[in-house]
Write a structure and sequence with these properties.
alpha/beta, Aldolase_TIM, 2 domains, about 350 residues
Length: about 350
C-alpha cells in the first residue's frame, strides 16, 4: 500500500473540502478547512489563469495544506444542428430575461488548460487534482518534480487503472451520487448508482494507490462506511454549500433549504455533460432535449443561468447537489467537517 496522502500533506482530519466550481468554493472556505485539520481544494474550473494564481497566493499566505483542481481536457464536441435546436428550445425560459440564446455562438475551449498548468508549475501547491481527463504522464512527472502531489478523479476500475498508469499519486473515487459534474472519462455512458463505499472497495482491490471517496455523503456514518471500504479520506462538497464561508448564491442557498425540493437527478441540460442537481423547471422540461456537448452547452446556458440567479429564480439555474443534500447546514465549515469526521455529535 502506498504512503497515505493525508500524512504527506500534514492533514489530521480524514475529510476533504471538495472543489466546487462556479462560485461556492472560496479562498476563505479553503483556508477554514485547512485550519480545521482538513484539506481544502480551490476550484480552478471556469476561472482565468490569473484568477487561479491570485487565489493560490491568498490561500498559501494562510499556511494551510490545500490543493487546486483543474478540468483536464476531454471535450465532448457538440453537433451544430443539435446546438441550434436547443438554443431555440430554451427560448421560452430565456424570454423573461430578454436573452437571445440563438445569438450565442458555439464555443469549444479547454478552460485555459495550458495557462493554468503553467501557473501551478510556477507556483507549486501541495496537491493538484484532475477531473474529466487524465493528464499526460510527462505533466504528472513535472508536477512531482516541483513538489506537488497529483490526484485523479475516477469513476470506475478501468479509469483507476488508467490513472495509475499515468503515474498519479492518488485517486478521488467519485460515484454518480455526488453533486455537480460526474468526473467520468466517458460521459456518453450512463452512470450506475453504485454506492460510494462499494465503488471504493472495488477500486481498492484493483489499484494500489491512496483513495479519497466522494459521493452521497451526508453524515459521519457515511464517512465511516466509505473509509471502512478502503478510503483514507472522504471528499465532501454538497454538505458545505450553505456554510458561512461558501460563495453559494442566495438563490441557490434558499433552494437547498426548501423542503419541497426532495429529489436530485443527473442531467446534461445545463452543460452538455452529466451532473447531479436538485430538480427544477429547466431540468424537468429540457433534460430530454439537451444535446451532449461540453463545454459548448455550458457556455450556451451561462447567460440564462446568471440572469436567473440575479433575479432570485431557482428554476433556471443549476442547483448542483448530491444525494446527501439535506445535510447542508448554515454552520462554519470547520464545524461541519469535524462532525462528518466523527469528532462531534449532531
Amino acid at each position: 500500500m502506498s504512503e497515505g496522502l493525508l500524512a504527506r500533506l500534514g492533514a489530521t482530519l480524514p475529510v476533504v473540502a471538495a472543489p466546487m466550481a462556479g462560485g461556492p468554493t472560496t479562498p476563505a472556505l479553503v483556508v477554514a478547512a485547512g485550519r480545521s485539520g482538513a484539506v481544502g481544494f480551490l476550484a480552478g474550473g471556469y476561472k482565468t489563469a490569473a484568477d487561479v494564481a491570485a487565489q493560490v497566493d491568498e490561500v498559501r499566505a494562510a499556511g494551510v495544506p490545500f490543493g487546486v483542481n483543474l478540468f483536464a481536457p476531454n471535450p465532448v464536441p457538440v453537433d451544430p444542428a443539435a446546438y441550434a435546436r436547443y438554443a431555440d428550445d430554451l427560448a421560452a425560459l430565456a424570454a423573461p430575461y430578454a436573452i437571445d440564446l440563438t445569438a450565442v455562438p458555439i464555443r469549444e475551449d479547454d478552460d485555459d488548460w495550458a495557462a493554468k498548468v503553467a501557473v501551478l508549475l510556477a507556483r507549486p501547491v501541495p496537491v493538484v487534482s484532475f477531473t474529466f481527463g487524465i493528464p499526460e504522464p510527462a505533466l504528472v512527472a513535472e508536477l512531482r518534480a516541483a513538489g506537488t502531489i497529483t490526484v485523479q478523479t475516477v469513476t470506475s476500475v478501468a479509469e483507476a487503472t488508467a490513472a495509475a498508469g499515468a503515474g498519479v499519486d492518488g485517486l478521488v473515487v467519485q460515484s454518480v451520487l455526488a453533486g455537480g459534474h460526474w468526473g467520468t472519462l466517458t460521459p456518453e455512458v450512463p452512470g450506475e448508482p453504485i454506492p460510494t463505499a462499494e465503488l471504493v472497495g472495488a477500486i481498492r482491490a484493483a489499484v494500489d494507490l491512496p483513495i479519497w471517496g466522494a459521493g452521497g455523503v451526508g453524515s459521519a456514518d457515511d464517512v465511516a462506511a466509505i473509509r471502512a471500504a478502503g478510503a483514507e479520506a472522504v471528499v465532501v462538497g454538497t454538505a458545505l454549500l450553505r456554510c458561512a464561508e461558501a460563495g453559494t448564491s442566495a438563490t441557490y442557498r434558499t433552494a437547498l433549504a426548501d423542503p419541497t425540493r426532495t429529489t436530485t437527478s443527473v442531467t446534461r441540460a445545463f452543460s452538455g455533460r452529466p451532473a447531479r442537481g436538485l430538480r427544477n423547471a429547466l431540468m424537468d422540461r429540457y433534460d430530454d432535449l439537451a444535446p451532449a456537448g461540453y463545454p459548448a452547452v455550458h457556455h450556451l446556458t451561462t447567460p440564462l443561468r446568471r440572469a436567473a440567479a440575479a433575479a432570485g429564480d431557482p428554476e433556471a439555474i443549476n442547483l448542483w447537489a448530491g444525494t446527501g443534500f439535506r445535510s447542508a447546514t448554515e454552520e462554519p465549515v470547520a464545524d461541519i467537517l469535524r462532525r462528518l469526521a466523527g469528532l462531534t455529535s449532531g
